[in-house]
Amino acid sequence: MSAQPAPAALLNGTKEVLRVVAAGSVDDGKSTLIGRLLYDSGSLLKDQIDAVARASEKRGEEELDLSLLTDGLIDEREQGITIDVAYRYFATPKRKFIFADVPGHEQYTRNMATGASTADLGIVVVDALKGMTRQSRRHLYLLKILGVERVIVAVNKMDLAGYSREVFSAIQDDLAAFADRIGLENVLVIPVSARRGDNVVHPGTNMPWHAGPPLLELLESVPAAAEGEPGPLRFPVQGVLRPRRDGGVPYRLYAGQLKSGAVRPGDEVVVHPGGLRSRVREVRVFEGELPEAAAPRSVMIALEDELDVARGSLIAAAEEPPRLSDELNALLFWMAERPFDPGRTWLLKIGARVERARVAAIHARLDVDRQAEEPGGAVGLNDIARVTLRVQNPIAHDPYAENPATGAFILIDPDTNDTVAGGTICP
Question: Which pTM does this prediction carry?
Fold first, then answer.
């Protein structure tokens, strides 16, 4: 792994929207880094800058505290830390961005899973003076197991480290060894100073030994999942409409968002639950019929046959159907304050489908600190476990690595309607 040139896997391809999750230990400066991206790229309105200036002055800061652009909660501003996932949207002439700034404290690891669940790329911020910390390793390991395949490690506070090439190289070597150990590929490490702006939007002049592009240029070039999501047709039905044709004959239109693949009139499809087959009669939006639609477009679909299709059904490609099973192997991310109760029955929700389920077996807990697995054991807040789920009725799904839309789920407490866990389905 090398700081320059950037790996081809990071630089080839383009996409209109890039979803980024930014993580790092407390005080490593990730919120300031995002603020610097917004400020130096000209993505802020004058009233936003004025509000940050007033808040910075109130806190006794002599210059703009750019972390306040993402640390939006009152508690965060008072404590100077990030405790929730803060989302920021901005754009450059080349690309639009959705940034999720996730908490640095260990007790908010569950928020990391939330922020990373839809990310195309992860940024992990490392303090140049502290180097790779336990939490830095935790975040890199979480990105690995959550399937975020492209990672940029931003070694921040290079100004406080005297812009030392030796300091950067030592962290780079430590990171390379760790990434190799956990099997994390496509990692790029770059030196930055979020406070001074070096190598964030503009290259700066303080690190002539670094010939690579600044962070924003990398973000504008990195490929992400294509807007028309590849893979077979997966169309979770969100609702059923019953319009009438010109002759007054009622028919059914199934409304929802295409999660992957494309659909055309004449395509053969399979509908779950039930596994019945039909063909697509028409694809519509409110403006009229379409000859074809691709993910992630929201459409309405009519089938040639009158089938029992309701909210929660899944319309899928007949030639590449989803898996169907009442037993799921999964990674479970426990998010509730109360410990996991192995005797409880939960509501498992994939897309719009909800089924009763229970955890039939806990095979191992993932020790995020040691990047290892421990057999069995109790599951508590922020724990990650490999489990087998037993579902009341067979449910259509895909492994998360193949199709996140039909491979991710949540568990809901049926008594309180609280979400207690999230998870990803393994092969």
Answer: 0.75
